[in-house]
C-alpha cells in the first residue's frame, strides 16, 4: 500500500514540476496582421515629409537613411532630393555623399540602368546645393590600388 501511494506521489510531483509538451495537429496558415497597406505614393510622401521637416537633426537624418537602406528598394529621386536638402540644413556634406553611395549600392546588379537615372533626376539639386557625386570626387576608384598588370 505504501509503495503504491509513494509511486502515485512521485508521478504527481513529476507532472507538476516538469513541463509537458503536447503535440496537436496544427494547420499551417499565413495570417496577415490586418494592418493598413501603404501605397508607393504614400510611402514616398511619408519619407519626403520626414526629410523636409525644418527641425530635423543629424541623428534623425541618419535614422531615416538607415531605415531606407534596410528596405528592399531603391529610394525614389524625390526622397533622395529631400534627404540631400536635409543634409545641407544640418551642414553635413559627408552624409550627403554617403547617402548617394548607399543609393548606388541599393541598385544591385542593375546599377548601370538605375544609377544614371537617379543622377539625372537629382543633378539639379546637386548643383543647387553644391554637392558633387562620388564619381566626381573620385570615390569610385580606390586611391591606393595597384595598376592592373594586364593593362601595362
From TrEMBL:
Pathway: Energy metabolism; oxidative phosphorylation. CDD domains: Cyt_c_Oxidase_Va. It is found in: Mitochondrion inner membrane. GO terms for cellular component: mitochondrial inner membrane; respiratory chain complex IV. GO terms for molecular function: metal ion binding. It comes from the Eukaryota. Its main location: mitochondrion. InterPro entries: Cyt_c_oxidase_su5A/6, Cyt_c_oxidase_su5A/6_sf. Keywords: Heme, Iron, Membrane, Metal-binding, Mitochondrion, Mitochondrion inner membrane, Phosphoprotein, Transit peptide, Ubl conjugation. Pfam families: COX5A. Gene3D superfamilies: Cytochrome c oxidase, subunit Va/VI. GO terms for biological process: mitochondrial electron transport, cytochrome c to oxygen. It is a peripheral membrane protein. Belongs to the cytochrome c oxidase subunit 5A family. Component of the cytochrome c oxidase, the last enzyme in the mitochondrial electron transport chain which drives oxidative phosphorylation. The respiratory chain contains 3 multisubunit complexes succinate dehydrogenase (complex II, CII), ubiquinol-cytochrome c oxidoreductase (cytochrome b-c1 complex, complex III, CIII) and cytochrome c oxidase (complex IV, CIV), that cooperate to transfer electrons derived from NADH and succinate to molecular oxygen, creating an electrochemical gradient over the inner membrane that drives transmembrane transport and the ATP synthase. Component of the cytochrome c oxidase (complex IV, CIV), a multisubunit enzyme composed of a catalytic core of 3 subunits and several supernumerary subunits. The complex exists as a monomer or a dimer and forms supercomplexes (SCs) in the inner mitochondrial membrane with ubiquinol-cytochrome c oxidoreductase (cytochrome b-c1 complex, complex III, CIII). This is Cytochrome c oxidase subunit 5A, mitochondrial. It comes from Galleria mellonella. The lineage of its organism: Eukaryota, Metazoa, Ecdysozoa, Arthropoda, Hexapoda. The gene is Cox5a.
Amino acid at each position: 500500500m505504501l509503495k503504491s501511494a509513494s509511486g502515485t506521489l512521485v508521478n504527481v510531483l513529476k507532472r507538476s514540476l516538469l513541463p509537458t509538451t503536447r503535440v496537436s495537429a496544427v494547420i499551417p496558415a499565413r495570417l496577415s496582421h490586418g494592418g493598413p497597406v501603404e501605397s508607393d505614393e504614400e510611402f514616398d510622401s511619408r519619407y519626403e515629409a520626414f526629410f523636409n521637416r525644418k527641425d530635423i537633426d543629424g541623428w534623425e537624418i541618419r535614422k531615416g537613411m538607415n531605415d531606407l537602406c534596410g528596405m528592399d528598394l531603391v529610394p525614389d529621386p524625390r526622397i533622395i532630393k529631400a534627404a540631400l536638402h536635409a543634409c545641407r540644413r544640418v551642414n553635413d556634406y559627408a552624409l550627403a555623399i554617403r547617402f548617394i553611395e548607399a543609393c548606388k549600392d541599393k541598385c544591385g546588379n542593375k546599377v548601370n540602368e538605375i544609377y544614371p537615372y537617379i543622377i539625372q533626376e537629382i543633378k539639379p539639386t546637386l548643383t543647387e546645393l553644391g554637392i558633387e557625386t562620388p564619381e566626381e570626387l573620385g570615390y569610385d576608384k580606390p586611391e591606393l590600388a595597384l595598376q592592373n598588370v594586364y593593362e601595362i
